[in-house]
Specification:
single chain; alpha/beta; Rossmann fold; Alpha-Beta Plaits; 2 domains; 6-stranded mixed beta sheet; 4-stranded antiparallel beta sheet; 10 helices; 15 strands; about 30% helix; binds adenosine-5'-triphosphate; ABC_transporter-like_ATP-bd; antibiotic resistance; ATP binding; ATP-binding; ATP hydrolysis activity
Length: about 350
């Protein structure tokens, strides 16, 4: 197991962030029973979160990533008070979530991408009205917040549609609005862009950026999409097997993992492999595959794609181009390899 905070120098090392959200040695152990023979079942422990400590300052937007089963959702559930930690100390805005869950609920918003907090049979509008009453949101504030969400999340045409009839992407936008109607100071987003098309993803990200800039909302974001992190978070924490493995910048994580991003280039015609050299440093890209007019070029994930795109556009007959992020599992696997003796 790697040490915690393998992070990049300087940024976001888990120190120096005053603690609006504070975790100190937090643990969550589940007791499960599993089959051990035809009739016998034995008890066994799952350490979903295994002694995690970090602080998030007010107004920060932090990515919280890791492979499946790493302990991300369990952490978020403890931060909302849904689950009680088995050990350690946890505070959100000075509140112990599991002891004062209702008081905390007025100050936080939560979006679980895989599940909805909306009423399945009701149109969005009615779900929002119920929240208006539940959270006792002043009328004017409610209307302003709803208008803003409707505009930025494109909900106008969806307000009278029952939630069960919405697509996953539409439902997600509806859920994000629901989490924001009461002006939460902290927003937990668990896979908020899952199932969204490229345009909806861009809209949601833009909206979150504005929310953070204008209202200073603190955001903890769990995602499998590294582009979410790249565009929203200066700081990323990586969790694996319930432990904090890294706390720093995304570029730093790519450096530690020596990961690569991929340019997928569509040329006007079939051509020999693209070659981009730079004086002194040698090749800037590595051609991984050529299939007719399409070429796949790998480059270090910590480098900027913009100058490479500009060079390709200037030197080759370019039709189309996209950038693919490395997946989180691959980055983490390389992190382990890099740390192995
Ligand atoms: N209620 C529960 N009872 C028993 N085990 C659980 C429970 N909830 C989670 N776990 C286990 O705890 C571990 C962490 O799960 P968690 O859902 O927090 O992971 P995750 O990082 O959110 O994963 P994913 O990306 O797949 O959502 C997993 O091994 C999971 O099976």
């Amino acid at each position: 197991m790697l040490d915690t905070s393998v992070g990049a120098a300087g940024e976001g090392m888990g120190v120096g962030h005053d603690g609006f959200i504070t975790l100190d040695g937090v643990e969550k152990v589940f007791q499960v029973r599993r089959k051990a023979g035809l009739l016998r079942r034995e008890r066994h422990e799952v350490r979903a979160v295994d002694g995690i400590s970090f602080q998030v300052a007010r107004g920060e937007m932090v990515g919280y990533i890791g492979p499946n089963g790493a302990g991300k959702s369990t952490t978020i559930k403890m931060l909302t008070g849904i689950l009680t930690p088995s050990g350690g100390r946890l505070r959100v805005a000075g509140i112990d979530p599991s002891r004062e869950r209702t008081r905390l609920a007025h100050r936080i918003g939560v979006v679980f991408g895989q599940r909805t907090t909306l009423w399945w049979d009701l149109p969005l509008r009615d779900s929002y009205r119920l929240m208006h009453r539940m959270y006792r949101i002043p009328d004017r504030r409610y209307r302003e917040n709803l208008d803003r969400c409707v505009e930025h999340l494109d909900l106008g045409e969806l307000l009278d549609v029952p939630v069960r009839q919405l697509s996953l992407g539409q439902r997600m936008r509806g859920d994000i609005a629901a989490a924001l109607l009461h002006d939460p100071e902290v927003l937990y987003l668990d896979e908020p862009t899952i199932g969204l098309d490229v345009i909806s993803k861009a809209k949601v990200r833009q909206f979150l950026k504005e929310l953070n800039a204008e209202r200073g909302t603190t955001v903890l974001l769990t995602t499998h999409d590294l582009t979410d992190i790249e565009q929203l978070c200066r700081r990323v924490m990586v969790i694996d097997h319930g432990r904090l493995m890294y706390d720093g910048s995304l570029a730093g994580l790519h450096e530690v993992g020596e990961s690569e991003r991929m340019l997928v280039v569509d040329l006007e015609r079939e051509l020999p492999p693209i070659s981009l050299e730079s004086e002194g440093t040698g090749p800037l890209v590595r051609v991984v595959k050529v299939e007719g007019p399409r070429q796949w070029l790998a480059f270090p994930a910590s480098a900027s794609a913009a100058p490479l795109v500009a060079r390709i556009a200037a030197e080759y007959p370019l039709m189309d181009l996209s950038v693919r992020e490395p997946d989180i599992e691959a980055v983490i696997a390389r992190m382990y390899e890099a740390a192995a003796p």
